[in-house]
Amino acid sequence: MRAANGVRRTAAMCALMSLFAACGGDSGPPPLRQLSTSYTYVIKPDDSPPHAREDIHYVIQVVDRKTRQPIENGVGQLFAGKPIEESAPSGPQTKTWDGLTYGPEVGTYHAKLNFVVAGTWAVALRFARDSLHPLERIDWMQDVLDERPSKTP
C-alpha cells in the first residue's frame, strides 16, 4: 500500500513538472497590458528593463475592447522622453520614437526604441484604427538601466 502511494505521488509530480515545462514557452519579460477608450493593448518588449543604447523591439497586439477582434492595418507611434535635467522636468528632453509597423500576425504591430541614457523615461503609445478615427493614447513609466559594458577591448 505504501509503495503504491509513492508511485502515485511520483507520477503526479512528473505530470506537474511536465505541465510547467509545457507552459514556459516564452522566456521573455512579462507583457504590459493597457487599456484605452476603444482598445486593449498587450505590449511585449524583448528586454525589460532595457539597457541604455540598445535597440529594444516591441511587439504590440491591439484588440477592440467591445468586439474583442484584432485591429488590422491601424496607424500609430511608440515614443518616449526623459528630461535632460531632473530639476527642470518641462525643459529640454532626450527623445526616441518609432512608427508602428503592421504584421505579419493579425492585429500585431512592431516598433523599436533606443533609450540613449539611463533613468526613468515616460513612454507612450498613440494608436488609431485608421485615419478616420481619433488617435488614442496610453502612457507608462519605464526604468532604463545603465549601458552594458562593451565586449570588445
Describe this entry's structure for a reader.
The protein is mainly beta and 153 residues long. It has a 5-stranded antiparallel sheet with strand order 1-2-3-7-6, with no helix packed on it. Strand 8 and strand 9 form a beta hairpin. About 10% of the residues have low confidence.
Give a short summary of the structure.
With 153 residues, this protein is mostly beta strands. Helices cover 14% and strands 42% of the residues.
- What is the radius of gyration computed over CA atoms, rounded to a whole number of angstroms? 21 Å
Helix fraction by DSSP (H/I, runs of at least 4): 10-25%
How many β-strands, per DSSP?
Answer: 9
| End-to-end separation | 65 Å
Q: Give the strand order of the largest sheet, numbering strands 1, 2, ... along the chain.
A: 1-2-3-7-6
In round numbers, the mean pLDDT is 85
Strand content: 35-45%
In one word, what is the shape?
Answer: globular
What sequence of helices (H) and strands (E) makes up the elements? HEEEEEEEEE
Largest sheet: 5 strands, antiparallel
Spans of at least 5 consecutive residues whose pLDDT stays below 50 are 10-24
Q: Given the structure, what is the number of helices?
A: 1
Give the quaternary arrangement of the chains: single chain
Structural class: mainly beta
